[in-house]
Amino acid sequence: AVEELTNVSAKTKAGRHHHALMDIAELRKLYKSIDTLSGSAHVRNALKLQALTAQRTGEVIGAQWSELDLDAATWTIPRSRMKMKLRDHDHVVHLSAQALALLSQMRAAAGDVKPDAYVFPGRPSSEGEPRPGHITDNAVSQAMRRDLKQDGLHVPHGWRASMKTLATRATDTDERPLFAAQWVETVLDHQSGD
User: Fold this and answer.
1) Nearest to residue 119, comparing CAs of 128, 148, 109, 129?
2) Of the four, 68, 73, 96, 175, which is 20 to 30 A from 53 by CA?
3) What is the pTM of this model?
4) Considering only CA atoms, which of 167, 159, 166 is closest in space to residue 183?
5) ∠ CA 137-141-142 to the nearest 5 degrees?
6) 194 residues of the chain, pLDDT tens digit each
């Protein structure tokens, strides 16, 4: 039997902690609470997409419409934007029905945008003019820590740790793993043995 954890800190090489909830009920509650955030819809949607895809914050906030193929339900992240830049292929994320629905709603709301436009553009200037760039890592982190009151419990990067731990622990009724370890590492774009 696998002991359920209410939270865990995954220590990084730099010694920082990426706090992550591991209880499914708590993760569902946290995901639903994202809708209660006031402020930027782009920050709310970035948090949701990160939860649904387990991709790094920088990859989510830097997403461009040209990377998404909503008909094929894929998101192709260019290797140049990935942490592991020295691979010979881009990272393809297969979108779940929930992620596809979120992105489809956002695309419809965005109207006519250039293909290289950011999915999560930054705030407009005080004159209402669009600014170049996308929302910041800090905006996403602050929303999680301060607004969702997750300081010391869960950080945006924690969705990745939660997915890895829960997918690795998931077993069928005969106690066989539901997901091959390599599948989990591929979704996270980790190197073998990482």
Assistant:
1) 109
2) 175
3) 0.82
4) 167
5) 115
6) 333 434 444 444 444 556 788 888 999 999 999 999 998 999 999 999 999 999 999 999 999 999 999 999 999 999 888 877 667 788 899 999 999 999 999 999 998 888 889 999 988 777 766 667 899 999 999 999 999 999 888 888 889 889 899 999 999 999 999 999 888 888 888 765 54
Angstrom distance (rounded) from CA 105 to CA 144:
22
Could you write out the DSSP letters of every residue in the chain? -PPP-SEEEEE-TTS-EEEEE--HHHHHHHHHHGGG--S-HHHHHHHHHHHHH---HHHHHT-BGGGEETTTTEEEE-GGGSS-TTSSSPEEEEPPHHHHHHHHHHHHHH-S--TTSBSSBPPPPTTSPPPSSB--HHHHHHIIIIIS--TTT--TTHHHHHHHHHHHH-B-TTS-BSS-HHHHHHHHTPPTT-
Instruction: Record the tokens describing residue 153, joined without a space.
Output: 């419990």
